[in-house]
Structure formats: structure tokens, C-alpha cells
Design brief:
Four copies of one chain form a homotetramer. Chain A has one domain: 4-Layer Sandwich (Chorismate synthase, AroC fold), CATH 3.60.150.10. The first copy, chain A, has eight helices and 18 strands. In chain A, the strands form six sheets. In chain A, strands 1-2-3-7-4 form a five-stranded antiparallel beta sheet, covered by helices on one side. Chain A has a five-stranded antiparallel beta sheet with strand order 9-8-10-16-11. In chain A, strand 2 and strand 3 form a beta hairpin. In chain A, helix 1 crosses helix 8. The longest helix of chain A has 27 residues. At the A-B interface, strand 1, helix 2, helix 6, strand 11 and helix 7 of A face strand 1, helix 2, helix 6, strand 11 and helix 7 of B. Strand 11 of chain A pairs antiparallel with strand 11 of chain B.
Chain lengths: 370, 370, 370, 370
């Protein structure tokens, strides 16, 4: 699948950081869905670097829908979005080609592409490729929203700082989601948000970078979606999230804290009220046996500190195999965790919509007995 | 893909806990590969419950290769493995059908299958389905072994106990891998292993269960394998690992500890010696930009405490929506983390072999210039 | 995909002619569908060789559903069917290994599998693999039948003999379909059927074989299913049909006769009556732009004469590259066109059900405006 | 897969006849392959309408490679080609929306997309979408050419006229292929070509259209490529070819003429010379058991007469269900068979390159014993 992903719904991303444009094809969308382009712009805005917490490369990121959209509605044909690269710097990248940036894809790209990769600004590995993903994800999110599903992500942790937790009360959680979706810097606790921004700016001053953990909440997603094995919701969501550059860990609910729990602590007790089943806790994050149970889905995604830092680093020249000291110049983010939140939302929205469509595929043929 | 997974190599699992047999089809294997059936038996043995740390359901798990294997070699046709279910208990499961076991797939299965699922012993959701996965994974591992690749997994943590860490020295790590593959209870530190066994037995005595974290190491896997986006090695491996029942988190290298690091601490400095590139640290666990760089791949997988416990739990009857107190009877594991280690190895072996074949697909057409 | 096929519904075939069993996994079926095993047996019977028109290898072909079927209903988990091979002849095939049978897969199999293929009785290339396909297809056909869809195939031509044509009247066509599905030898015209049987027996007497053309009709298949490009109904159906051994051509409606037509003759004029649209002719066989329009789908499939004949033939020994005269012994069919009819029905049923499920996948999300 | 196709190599087409641009993403290409853009232009030229035998809509069809191509070489990242639509006529298509053109996709598109489809000039169903396919196919063909593979297609039949046959001698066939690839109107026999052109012009004068049959020859394609079942070379090629608008039949070698043959006539006798195996005839067209044997691959593809004709036709208005007489205006081709030849070449080149890569995927792991 390489640069495509999905079953009934499929995305295909293309482009490089310094090429004329980047883009995405979103295939398999239902016809007749009204798209609010303003909402896409809103989501694109949340991905943009702001002030001192982001890169100084400022792209307009105007989206051009060139197919699959007609008279304000999806047509059912592949919907293609193009975004021009405008703020490339016309410097000569050739001398940098062989100077490997530590923990970047420079080295592994050489091993894979034998030197033919477009190395300018990270090429196809660039975080810029997440811009069309946000545009496509915004469309998927709009469809899910119309069905009542809500999605948002906050900065659960940044460097050593922690945000407040999501509420365990359904209504409060919905309110938190709505609020987060209006915030440029995604914390539940405003004060913690300010501290985090300061920490990012501090890292920038130190010519360094910091990482963070994102926590996503999805509410009102229907029960019964996902598969027992290879298309478990966790498998699909993790597959999607690990395709975002800099993601090195994904967990659900209690996640790695499950290890130190006993079953009696970890299990989510069930109770029924008004003919409806719920669980008292939600350690399993709305997914059992790979299938949604209707409770909120909660996902943790760790974003490593930006590999590009201004500090001098030990490295190697690929062609000569000479040991060098490397100082990276140019424009880059001292932290991408906060900007990644909307990319995470987008990959989640895409994945859940596709999974839902896979369930819908069978329903026409199924009998209900209960 | 549901019950199938893979691109050039594909597995398809089928069967239920109380059906006549379970099995797997492994399609896309190269022809002419010699399989050591004794090695498969060895790996199957590592999955079996032993003593008081595992379930009292003891299955022989004799494997029957019914296709794709001829005169001791793979034929290139689909290789199918059947394993009979012999130790089902012939009790009447019908009265239990609607009594939802907390944190099991019972509830979500009702939402998905509307009561038609085979509910006996977990049906298709049962951990028994991992038996054929181990058999298929053993074959993949044998192919990788022949190419020099080594894979093993240890119990990094069990409940509140921790094993020693993998060595950061290449040779020592290889030795640790070899040793682990001979151990029924997979710890690097023998004494810690004994303590962990005791902790599991203690949980059993308390009618409870415990979870754990598995850490896998893969050495000598070639550089240049994986894809920048949706087929990043992390995406593929996480997809595979999250399909194992009870897995709730997957991370690579520093994993969630990346969050509290600065870039200058997290980045892996490069150095060259004897014309070969390596990194001084390996926080990124051998993968940059989704592509292997030749350093060891290190993966953490959290296994939640077994959902089946003997303690009474609050639950619901699905059909009547009545609140009940449920006491689960029968046979189950007080911990599955140690048994899961070989399942994890198997899914990793399958995934890495498939990814390697995808790289090989292009090599005939590529020129090397460097 | 190799030995798997399908999107929302997937089949995976495995096994060899002389292995212990052959089988199929049918994944993605809706849950709660009642399967009539007698109907599967009925369809299996139509595939069996009878009298002098078929091979003397007589297999019971008893089907064993080992998963995905519980209390008389599909569970939604992979449904697996095993069929034992019982009538293998225990002769030593090794001396025949390198003696290439003309127009068989012997030669190309050597090129692909380098001698590791199971060469006994055609191995994985054997027509026996179509037995599990018929069983799985029968299940798909039962689902389609319940939705009102009818499918049948007749022997449009056998050697130089031709059957009557399908009726162009809807009701008559439905009656013909029902009649064909009860006939062991599938012709509309009984007398022509007898002549064809005689032609097959004559070919057998001459130590030779004959080919034929199958025409399939599908009625009451809903409009709006299929895709403009790579999943056009014609693409999907042809993909499925060309996977049947001995098929060398597939066409729809006028097929190759379209070439010598003018547009004004070939186009199907539209007319409306009682608020319903139909076409006066059906040259396009119910498919426009890759999408069904609700008219009957009509497909022609040519089956080449059985490659195995008793006449001596010029050939080569693969290992020595020596020119030889080869006389094939053993049991084989003087014609397989009539037996293939139910295989063709099965592949069509599978493909159309999968395509329908792909449409259903979107419908939950679509608005109707007309 | 809808608008994507392929396994190791994948194409994704997008765009509509009257949108701003159409395009294609070609993913999975090997890195480091030099592309001759002039050769792409050459192939694009062969698709263009010329004189009175084609539509009066003249598009420049300048290709823009916007990703995956750097410094004259493929990078290994998705290669994306955009082609602007420039010659749309700015008329108001709305009044035509419901007036169904017979044997077009208008009707079935309404059934599928409920009126949301872009109906202008055929929208996503337009033959214009074959322009990016030719560009992508040209790249695949260049890779195959470098490996020694030759591909060309001639107009085997047009209306009632027939071209000469391909030579059965290897060297002559190669020469014919080379010649055809330089010809705008693809016949082996010049005089027949002139007669065919006249027939097309005559059809245009009569406000009508004609169909034709294309025969493709592929030489020097390696043996051992393809799969026994669902990825048989015939399945893959037919899948690809039936996705081309107006294709209604595909056959290989003797094709539908196999029916009236005896096995002894149809089988291709084998002989060895100089340690190499060949067949004396090539009725099976280089494919046995779904796998190439090294002989030329020969494919017949029937193209129906253009559905758009200027003659008045009986039709229906979709919304009112009123019977109407429809006269189609605008620009269209009296025949598309000759233009389709390069589209056919392109789909073949893509499919064969992908199949080859799938074989290469295994080769690193296979032992050769013969």
C-alpha cells in the first residue's frame, strides 16, 4: 500500500517538500455529501506554525479541490486536493545531500533509494505531507460529525509538563472536545498550555527541541465496528497513527499502565440503565476484541522531539563515510507535538470512517435477532 | 482485510475455540525453502501453558501442514496449517451466552454479530487463534534466520517487576536472543523470572490476573526496508501486534519516554568505522522515517491482565439488560504475557519478511549508484 | 492477492490435487445468514463428472464446514470449507515430473517454482481446486437468491454445436435460469444437449478433447453497482472468470460482435414505462460505464479443449531438454466446459455479492436527491 | 480498489472531463530509473485525435510531473502526473443532465450517485481519463523496454475490415512491433489501414460510429510470471483492460476460437533446441496455468462503437421518466478503437511490470535447483 491506505475509503498522498505541489486523493467517499470548505481551512489553520513555537517557514496552504467535488457536493469520484509549495528557499541543497541529519530519514533513505531520493527539505519524508492529510481528514471528520461523532486531541504531556485529564463524564467530555477544536494550542488547562508554550520557546532558545504525548478522545462512535483480528480498531488506528512522522508509540486507554494492574483493577465493570449498557470505568478505551463498544475511544500518541535541532551534532557523510560535526541550518520546529494534534485527528477520522463503511457494507445483508 | 494480513506474503486465520479445528493459510512464500518441522514444534511449545502460570486447558497443538509443502520444501503454493481442537469441554454454553464477561469481546461481539457469533469459549476471539499464528510465524522466522536475522522477546515487566534490559552491545544482544529462544519463561535475569512466576501464581491464588510488557529485539535486519508513509515499518509492525488479543500499546525504542526528552538527548548520533555507519545510541530503535537503518529494532508491547478472572464481577445480561454479579468458571490463564512472547515474535517475523519481500520486488529494477 | 480475491468479501483457496485435502476460506460474510447445506451439495453435484463425458476420477467431495458456521447460521467469522482428496491414485509420479504435458502449466510452473511445485496430478493447478470454489460460490448464490437475484449458465456452444439463445423476455429468461439450475448438462435445447454429449463421447473415443463457450445470465441484480475504473463490473467479473483453469476469453453482451456494428445498431435505446426505465435491446449486457443498470447481465466465457488428451504429442523433458513423444495416461475429462458451468456461476456469485457489499458500504452515508 | 489498481506498483486515476485537471499517481516505482519525457510525449501523441477520424476536441495534453521525479530519475516516491483540461466548452450542461445518452454511463451513474455525479462531458467516465493512463503506462513501458520487453497493438479488425495477422516468426514479430509503435494509425497492412480510415470517415458522415478489435503482442517477457489462481496473468490483464471505457471483450491467443477446436489441434507442441524450450504453435498465447512461459503474449480486445452518435436516438429523461428523442450535440469520435491502442499498451505495460515485480519479490528468497 505504500502511499495509500484504507479499504472502502482510500487515501493516497504524494509530493515532496520542495516540489511544485503536494496532494492527496481521497477515493471511495459517498456521493452527495456537502463539504464546508471553511471547516477545512479552519483545520488547516490549526496545523500552521504560530509565533515562536513553530518553524519560520510559513506556507499559505490554500487547498485546491481539483476533482470529485461538484456544485458543493462530493460526486463519489476520487476527490483530489492539491496544495502548492510556495515558501521553499531556493538555496542549493546539493552540498548537504550526503550530510546525514541524526534521527532523520536521511540515512535510511539512502539505503532504500540509493541516492535518488529528493533530499531537499526532507523530500517525501517531510512533515509538509501532513498538510494534505489534514485537508482529507477534515472532510472525513465532517461526515463523522454529521453522524454525531466528535473527535479532539489535547497535549496530554509536553516535555515534563502535564495537562489536565479528559473528563470521565460524557457531557463534560463532549464540551472539552468542542473547546479543544477551537484552540490553537490544545490543552484543557489554559495555564498549563502557557507553561508548555514557554517550554517550547525555551527549547528553541537552547537550539534544542522537545517532545510530547497527545491524547485523543472520540465520542458517540457506534458500537460493533472493527474486526477480531487484523482489522481490529486498534490495529487500524495504530497503522494510521504510526504513519505520521515522529510518532514512536501508540496506546489505548490505560495503555502501558495495564502492565502493573491486576485484572480486577483493569476490567471495566458493566452496568445497564434505561435499557442501555455502559461501563463504570473505561480502561479499555471503548474497544474490546478489536471492536468498538460505544464508550469513548481514548488514544495516546507519543511525538518524539523534532530531530532537527540547531545544536551541533556528531554525524557522518554518507558517500565518504567520514565522521563530521553537523550544524543544521534553515527553518524548523522546536516542537511539533501541538501542531500534530490535528494530523492525529485527521488520521483517526479517516480510519474510523473507513471502518464504519466496512461495517455498513454488511448490514444490508444481515438479520437482527436481538 | 479482516482475517488476512500482508502484501507479498499473506496470512489468513480461521477457526473458533470450540470448533473442530483452527488454522492458517500462508500465501506468497517463496518456493524451495526447507522447513524444519521440529523448529515449529519448538515454537509451539513456547506458547503452551505450563504449571500454575497458565490455563489448565492443555491442547496438544499438533500441526498438520495440508498444502504448499512437498518433499520437505515449500512449493510456492499456499501453505495451510490445521490444528485440531481436542480439549474443549462439552458443557452447555448456551446459558452463558448473554452473560457478558467484563473487558472481553462478549459485548462488542453482540453489537457486531447480533447474537450469531460462536460464543463458546470466546469463539473466533479466543487466544487459541494465536496457535496457528505461531506455526506460520515460525516458518517466517526460519526464513529470516537463514538470512541471518535474529528475533526474540523478553518479559520487560510483569506486574510491578522488571527484567534486566537488553544489552546495547551487538554481540551480547545476539547471545541474549539465542538464550531467550531456548527459555520457556522469557526473562534475561533468571531470578527476576522466578519472582515473576511467583507473582503470577500469587495472582492465580487471589482469583485474579496480571499484565506485563514484552520487549522484542530484532538484529541483522537489513537497512532500507519499509516505506515513508502508510507502510512505515512501525505502522506495519503495530498493525500486526495490535491484532494479538490483549495488546493495548506498542512503542519503539524510547517509546513514550521520548516525550520528556530534548532532541539533543533523543537523537542518535551517527559515526562511521570501517566504512560502516552506526549510531552511538539507538533510541529510534533501528527505524527512521519508517525505514530500517540496520541497527537493532526494539519494540515494546503491553499485554493487559487477562480479562477472565475468578473473582465475582459486576456485569449485565445482554438480552434482558439486567444487572448481575458474574463469576466466571472454567479454565483460563492468570497471565498471558509470557505465553504471548512467541506470538509477538511470530507476528514480527511475518511482518518483517513481508516488508523485505516488498523491497525485493523493486530491486531487480533498481540501479545502485552509491 | 495470489490465492485470495475480493474486497469486502474475500476467498482464499488452497490445496493440491494429491494432498490430503483442498479448501477455501470465505471471509467477510454477513452474520446471521442461514445456509442450506443441501443446496451446496446440489451445486457440488453439478460439478461432478458423469458417465462418459467426464473423468473417471470420482471424488465424493463431501464438504466440511469447520469454522464460521454455528447453529445453522453464518457467524460473521471466516467460513472455512475442507474437502478431502480420496481418489488419488498412489502411483509414483516422480518419473513424470520432467515430462511436460503440452498446454498444461507444467512448463510455466517449472519456470516459476524451479522444480519445487507439487507436480502430482497438476498440484495446485488442478481443476480440483474448483470444488471448494463451487462450495463457497453456492453460499454466495444463496445470499443473492434471497435478495431476488438469479444466476445460471448454459453451454452456448460445444465444439461446432450451438445451443438455443437465452430469451430476451424477462419472465422467460427467469424460467430458463430456473430450469438450467436443475440440469446436469446445461443446455436450453434438450436435443442439442444430447448432440453435444455425443460429440464429447466421440472426442473421448478419438483420444481427444473439445472446448466450448458458456453463456451466463444474471437477472434482478440491482442497478448502480460497480465502479467507473478499475473495479468496473466487467473488470471484476473477468478477473474472477479468468482465474478458472482453461478460460481463455470473456466477453459481455455482443462481445466481439461489437466490432462489426455501427453505434446506431449497437446502442441500447432507452424507454420508460410505469416510471421504470429499461432498454429495448441489451447489447451492453446490463453494464454501462462499469456499473450495473438493472438489465440482465450476460457473460460469455470460452473454455479451451482439455489439454490432457490420450493421443501421443510432441514434447520435451524439462531437465534434459530432450525432445520426446509423450502419451498421457491416467484419468481426465474429454471436455470440461459443461462441468465448468457451475464454477462460472460460483465465481460470478462471489464477485457480484462482493460488489454489492461495496455499494452498500456507502449507502449509509449517502443522501438521495432524486 | 475503485480508482486504484496494482499490488507492488499501483496507479490511482482522478479527475473529470470538465474539471481543472486530470491526473494519475504511480506508486511503487523503483528508484533511479531514467525517464525519457520525449517518449511520454510520443505516446501521448498516438492517443490524440487526428483529422476526420477523431473528435474535434483538441487538447494539448501537456504532462506535468509534480512528484517522484528528480534530476531526471525516479525517486521511488509516488510519481504524480497532472494534465490540464483546456478545451472544455463553456456551455451550460445543466439542461442535458437528465437526458440519458443511450449506452453511456448516464443512466447507471444516476443509479449509483443519485444525481451528484459531475455530468459535464461524461465527468469521471470520460475517455479523457485515459490520457494520464497513457502517460503512466509510457513510464512502465520504458522500464520494460530497458529489460528487453516489446509491446505493440494493431487494429486487428475495424467494422468489417481486417488487418494482416502478426507474424509467427519471432524476429518478424519484433520488427512489426517496432513499426507499429511509430504509426499513428496502427495497422500492419498500410492499404487496409487506409480502407479503415475511410470506413471511419464514412461512419462520421452517416452521423454514426464503428467499433473494432485490437490485438496486442508482447515479446521477450520472462517466463515464470503470474499466479495459478486469482492473479493469473489473464486475470490481471483482463481486469486492467476491462477498465478502459468501451471494452466489452478480452481474449488470449485463439480466444473464442478455442471452442470449436479439438485438444489435439489446440495444444501447443513443445520442442527444445539449443537447450531452450519453445512451442511450435502459440495458441495459448504465452500463458499456461496463469503463468508466462516465455513465448509471445497475444491479446484481443474488442472496442465497441462509440456510444455518442449524431443520429437521433430513443431515450428517456431520468427525472421525469418521459420518453424522448435525443440528438447528441458536441464533439465526439466516430471511432475510438485506433486511439485506444496506446491505452491498451499502457494498461498492459503497467500490469506486466507489476506482475514482474511480484515475482521479483520472492526471488531473493528462492533457491534455484534446476
Amino acid at each position: 500500500m505504500k502511499n495509500s491506505f484504507g479499504t472502502n475509503l482510500q487515501i493516497t498522498v504524494f509530493g515532496e517538500s520542495h516540489g511544485p505541489c503536494i496532494g492527496i486523493v481521497l477515493d471511495g467517499l459517498p456521493a452527495g455529501f456537502s463539504i464546508d470548505e471553511k471547516q477545512i481551512e479552519h483545520d488547516m489553520e490549526l496545523r500552521k506554525p504560530k509565533g515562536k513555537t513553530g518553524t519560520q517557514r510559513h506556507e499559505e496552504d490554500t487547498i485546491h479541490i481539483v476533482s470529485g467535488f461538484f456544485n458543493g457536493y462530493t460526486t463519489g469520484s476520487p476527490l483530489t486536493i492539491l496544495i502548492e509549495n510556495k515558501a521553499q528557499r531556493s538555496k542549493d541543497y546539493a552540498p548537504l545531500k550526503y550530510r546525514l541529519r541524526p534521527s532523520h530519514a536521511d540515512w535510511s533513505a539512502f539505503e532504500k533509494y540509493h541516492g535518488y531520493q529528493d533530499y531537499r527539505g526532507g523530500g517525501h519524508f517531510s512533515g509538509r505531507l501532513t498538510a494534505p492529510i489534514v485537508a482529507a481528514g477534515s472532510i472525513c471528520k465532517q461526515i463523522l460529525n454529521q453522524k454525531g461523532v466528535k473527535i479532539a486531541t489535547h497535549l496530554e504531556a509536553l516535555y515534563t509538563l502535564e495537562d489536565d485529564a479528559f473528563s470521565t463524564k460524557a457531557e463534560e467530555l463532549d464540551q472539552q472536545i468542542d473547546l479543544l477544536n477551537e484552540k490553537q494550542f490544545p490543552t484543557l488547562n489554559e495555564k498549563k498550555g502557557e507553561e508548555m508554550k514557554t517550554a517550547i520557546e525555551q527549547a528553541a532558545l537552547e537550539k534544542d527541541s522537545v517532545g510530547g504525548i497527545l491524547e485523543s478522545a472520540i465520542t458517540h462512535f457506534p458500537a460493533g465496528i472493527g474486526e477480531p483480528f487484523f482489522d481490529s480498531l486498534e490495529s487500524l488506528l495504530a497503522h494510521a497513527l504510526f504513519s505520521i512522522p515522529a510518532v514512536k508509540g501508540v496506546s489505548f486507554g490505560l495503555g502501558f499502565d495495564f502492565a502493573a494492574k491486576k485484572g480486577s483493577e483493569a476490567n471495566d465493570a458493566l452496568y445497564a440503565h434505561d435499557g442501555r449498557i455502559e461501563t463504570t470505568s473505561n480502561n479499555n478505551a471503548g474497544i474490546n476484541g478489536g471492536i468498538s463498544n460505544g464508550m469513548p475511544i481514548l488514544i495516546h500518541t507519543v511525538i518524539k522531539p523534532t530531530a532537527s535541532i540547531f545544536k551541533a551534532q556528531k554525524s557522518v557523510e554518507y558517500d565518504t563515510k567520514e565522521n563530521i560535526e553537523l550544524t543544521i541550518e534553515g527553518r524548523h520546529d522546536p516542537c511539533i507535538a501541538h501542531r500534530a494534534r490535528i494530523v492525529v485527528d485527521s488520521m483517526i477520522a479517516f480510519t474510523l470512517l473507513d471502518a464504519w463503511m466496512s461495517k455498513a457494507a454488511k448490514e444490508e445483508f444481515e438479520e437482527e435477532t436481538l
